[in-house]
Specification:
The chain is mostly helical and 85 residues long. It contains 5 helices and no strands. The protein folds into 2 domains: 1-30, no CATH class; 32-85, no CATH class.
Length: 85
Amino acid sequence: MYNRRITTRDLAVLLNVHERYLSYMYPGKIAVSNKKALIEARKLFKLAIAKEVIDGKYSTAQAARVAYVSYNTMRRFVKKAKNGL
């Protein structure tokens, strides 16, 4: 949940509990106040992983798992990294 592998809603369905109950049991997950900074940080993280794909450290599929994104999203970021953004 904290690593963005599963949403609170999906976890609540999986555990057969109400979403509010799950939020009550795990209160550490708070709303992000500055979403633009979070989006920029995630973008930089994905670009750094994409550069490691270019360097040969990861395959595109491995990088997608490391960055918690889809394969196609990672392909787009690898393409951006190759073009110098």
